[in-house]
Specification:
3 domains; binds biotin; 11 helices; alpha+beta; BirA Bifunctional Protein, domain 2; Arc Repressor Mutant, subunit A; SH3 type barrels; eight-stranded mixed beta sheet
């Protein structure tokens, strides 16, 4: 029995006896008891009421592939191979594994979401905090024409799509921090990790992963200011991860389609309008470069006005690494 089946049964907030759960889930009462313990250990707020049964003390926002599919455009669903996993090491790694199995969805775009990641990866080898039930962790397996050299700007395209999806959900003041971060009032709300998988007949196989903080209120060991949708809304909104996932998937696929057809130049104005660095005094993290942020060029490279003139920083050099 999966935790998800149990949580679904308890999601009405009522008390369910062990006996009734055993019948509904087609397992023994001992199996129910064990599953309740496992779910409690994972952090699900299940209360045990002696002699009565079990109940959820808070509503749990479960991810559900069927719900996501049912709210996406039918034509889009047909193009996707969308899976929701309970736990995985990394949704980016899972896409790589699934794509290397020849029978798996070779003509569709793979989308993998997970409720929790045990080895969520961030940029530059950092860990991406991925507690269960809290946030969105999703990855897309993309095949883009033109090989690796045509990928400059992809992370900015995905960033723009995430920003637009969030704005459509009513989140204001979203800014983009070149090249990969989605920010809200100076704190990081989401990050993007683009990993290259391989080149096949002139097309690049890429994994684009997005981590978006949704319900998270506490996180140990994060070395930069961060926020979440729950923090931004301050309890004034009940976020539903399935609904957010629908908006993200639709926006990312539409943006990637446009990027495949016309390249990055089209996205320059929309990315630029949310540029966190524009007009700011900047210093490159590695190296001695100092200057004022001037926005991006038509390929997505960042421009800095230095004392020696305009310097260009390539997106590809900084934001991408090859999957090993
Ligand atoms: C960053 O460092 O800002 C990038 C974070 C990317 C995290 C996401 S969560 C889904 C996908 N799977 C991973 O292991 N990483 C990305």
């Amino acid at each position: 029995m999966k935790t998800k089946a149990l949580i679904n049964r308890l999601s009405d907030g009522a008390v369910h006896s062990g006996a009734s759960l055993a019948v509904e889930l087609g397992v023994s009462r001992t199996a129910v008891w064990k599953q309740v313990h496992r779910a409690q250990e994972k952090g699900y707020p299940i209360e045990t009421l002696r002699g009565q049964g079990y109940r959820l003390t808070e509503s749990v926002d479960l991810l559900d592939a069927e719900r996501i599919r049912s709210r996406l455009d039918k034509a889009l669903v047909e193009r996707l191979d969308l899976v929701v996993l309970e736990t995985v090491d990394s949704t980016n790694a899972e896409i790589v594994r699934r794509r290397s199995r020849p029978q798996d969805g070779c003509h569709s775009m793979m989308v993998c979401l997970a409720d929790a990641q045990t080895a969520g990866r961030g940029r530059r080898g950092k860990v991406w905090q991925s507690p269960p039930g809290e946030n969105l962790y999703l990855s897309f397996g993309l095949t883009l024409p033109g090989g690796f050299s045509a990928l400059d700007g992809l992370s900015l395209v995905v960033g723009s799509a995430v920003a637009e999806a969030l704005e459509a959900l009513g989140v204001e003041d979203i800014q983009l921090k070149w090249p990969n971060d989605i920010m809200h009032k100076g704190s990081k709300l989401a990050g993007i990790l683009i990993e290259l998988q391989g080149e096949l007949e002139g097309a690049a196989q890429v994994v684009a992963g997005i981590g978006l903080n949704v319900h998270m209120q506490h996180a140990a060991g994060v070395d930069q200011p961060w926020t979440s949708l729950a923090r931004i809304a301050g309890g004034g909104h009940e976020w539903r991860r399935n609904n957010i996932a629908v908006h993200l998937v639709a926006a990312v696929v539409a943006a990637v389609d446009r990027f495949s057809e016309s390249g990055f130049a089209d996205f320059q104005p929309q990315w630029q309008s949310r540029d966190l660095f524009f007009g700011e005094e900047l210093k490159a993290v590695q190296g001695e470069l100092k200057g004022i942020g001037c926005g991006i060029d038509a390929s997505g490279n960042y421009l800095i006005q230095t004392i020696n003139g305009i310097e260009t920083i390539r997106a590809g050099e900084i934001s991408m690494r090859v999957v090993t």
